[in-house]
Amino acid sequence: MRKINRLKLDEKTSDNLKEKERKLLQAMSEWKSLTKIKELQKWYDLVGVKRKLEKMQDFNWEILCCYCETKKHNSPLEIEHVKPKWKPWYEKYTFSWDNLLYSCRNCNWSYKQDNYEDCFLNPSENDYSFADNFEFNEECFYVTKNDNAKITSEILKLNDKWKHSFKSRLQLCLDLQKIFEEYKKDWLSKDLVKKYLRIHLKDKRELESFWNWFLENLLKDLS
What we know:
Shape: elongated
Strand content: 5-15%
Distance between the termini: 27 Å
Strand order of the largest sheet: 1-2
Largest sheet: 2 strands, antiparallel
Number of helices: 9
Radius of gyration: 20 Å
C-alpha cells in the first residue's frame, strides 16, 4: 500500500467538483429525499478527476490500485471514496478531492464496502508513510506496525493468498531467488546481480511498495 502524492486539480475540474459539492450540501441541509441525494452523488462526466487520479497512481506506465497495487489491466479500476459516500455521515465528502482515489473493484466493493472504520489508512494523506505502517516478511506477507495498519490490512485482505497482488509478490520472489542462487555459485558478479534486479524493477509494472522495500532492505547486502 504505497504512498500516493496528491496532485492539484486544474481550475475547471476543481470548480466542477465544488459546484457538485455545493448542490449536494444544499440538498442535505434542506432534508431532500434520499433518492434526490443519491442522484446528486452520481459522477456523470468528471473526466478531469479520472485523468488526474490516473496520473497520481501511475507506476512505470501502469495505473495501480491505491490499496493492493494491482494493475488496471488485471482488475478494472474505479473511483474510490476513502470515506464511503453510502454512509450518511460521510455523504458530505462525496466530491471532496482529498477523499478520491482509484481502486480495484475487489478492494472497493468486495472488501471495504461494509467494513470501513475511521482508523482506515488513506495512502494519499500527507502524513502517510509505507515504512511507518508496513513492511514485508520473507514469505511476501504484509507485516503491520501499528493497530491502524493492522485494521486496514484486515479490511482489504492484503495477505489473502488468492489475491493477484500476493501471487505477483510470490512469483517475483521466486524469480529473484534464482538470481541470488546464481550469485552464490559465483556465476554472476555483484554488479551483474544489481543490474538484473534493476531490470526486473523496470519491467515489473506493479507492486511499487514491495519493490521499494526489497531494494532498501535486501539490495544493500550486495553493496
